[in-house]
């Protein structure tokens, strides 16, 4: 199975002047032919032309989408040398430089700041009575009667 490597270059944006190229279309075709032949001399095979979007800065804070005309080429990749490791594909978005940290444990609160069982008891009730299962709950509070 053949493995290919690819090269993508921007398409020419202007035509080339020449004696036989009189119209803008002829000049652009000449510039494109020159680029295709230059890549072919280096062993690249033309695959296709693409128009792809790119988000670019516009002014200080703005962004705009710009479209680029690109030429795609390929050639058979050289086989890796004997014993050499094949290059692993790289992720599109690199991983973070540092590993994720474990969450930090909750600090121990000072004893005075920690809630105490007696904090939730009504007045005149001792902590020992609250821990006793036979204690009767206090009567509900009511507002004083108005005469």
From TrEMBL:
Residues 1-22, 80-147 are annotated as: Disordered. This is DUF4177 domain-containing protein. The lineage of its organism: Bacteria, Pseudomonadati, Pseudomonadota, Alphaproteobacteria, Rhodobacterales.
